[in-house]
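Narrative progress, year one. The postdoctoral researcher (J.K.) led the effort to move from monomer predictions toward full complexes, under supervision of the PI. The following entry was the first complex the group processed end to end, covering 341 residues in total.
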Amino acid sequence: MKTALITGITGQDGSYLADFLLEKGYTVYGLRRRISTYNLENIAHLQVDPHARTESFKLVYGDLSDSSNINRLIDQIKPDEIYNLAAQSHVRVSFDVPEYTADIDALGPLRILEAIRESKTSIRFYQASTSELYGDVLETPQTEKTPFNPQSPYAIAKHYAFQIVKNYREAYHLYACNGILFNHESPRRGTSFVTRKITTSVARIVRNKQDCLYLGNLDAKRDWGYAPEYVEAMWLMLQQDEPEDIVIGTGETHSVREFVEHAFAYAGIDIAWEGKGIDERGVDKKNGKSLVRIDPYYYRPTEVDLLLSDPSLARKKLGWSSKIRFKALVEIMMQHDLGRI
Ligand code: NAP
Ligand code: GDD
């Protein structure tokens, strides 16, 4: 049976990938960093107790900033596959902490690649690359051949990671590949990302725990898919004869505004838009109450306006395609947050 090391185990994707690999019979090691408060909600169902480790799922401490730790873990665990999902993953935040973002998101993968190279083993490596690399897009839809034009410290750090993975593949013949994943969401998505912020806020508004939802750019468009489907694509990318960088997405794009409308509609509220720019408001058609307002804090110094994938290669090479589309995704997330709050 195979052994996998997943970095970013406490995050959305790390937790779904652990579920997926455990189901396939893998032994899974999840790398968590030391923090002061409990952050194991996404993997709580795996009954994680550091003192009562299960046979097939184990947590280990580590940090992508520390290469001695990464080397030691790889030496001890001897994984067949490493999935590097750990990152400072918030685009807006990367403008506030650009140097930290570069350390973790660019040099982190380099540290793992070096450890693999030094280990002289045939560990297969998956890097969580991103549609943010396309940035101010130079072509629509975006494919594996579309040139990158990143627009944030996050995307530029991930661009370095993309290129260093490619370089180590070519220079040292490592089985290393980049999954160029478009946005994917779920009930386990962090609440600072726009989809989950919307679904938690709408649920709180409906339950009278919050008055209004404050957002930034309502007209940004994203290719949003369902995260549990995307972790299968990560795994498939490590099961091929040859490593290859592949786009994973739905092939549909929708605006933040549409997401808001559908989320409120699910809760029985029809939203009408009034005003322009930072004065725009989303009001309840029934009573005129302002439920959505603009807060310029959420604008980004440089924005990515439109992302839309062409996932043809994933279909052809991996036999993978997304099934849960936009409306169903909003419903899954709304159902979860309404149930929770
Ligand atoms: P996420 O929920 O934000 O999870 C990020 C994970 O990285 C968390 O487990 C976090 O741990 C960990 N982490 C952060 N800094 C670390 C460090 N210095 N050392 C070790 N671990 C660290 O992100 P996600 O949505 O699951 O995304 C997974 C990966 O895919 C990320 O690399 C992201 O950039 C990339 N990606 C995501 C999407 C998407 O739409 N979700 C699309 C394309 C690419 P803590 O819990 O301790 O913070
Ligand atoms: N977070 C956030 N909060 N975004 C907002 C808000 C708000 O209040 N209002 C509008 N937006 C807009 C952002 O400006 C952006 O255009 C869009 O909503 C999506 O923002 P996020 O959900 O934060 O995601 P992202 O697209 O910037 O980044 C995510 O997807 C990338 C893949 O394309 C992250 O998961 C990245 O890690 C990932 O690489």
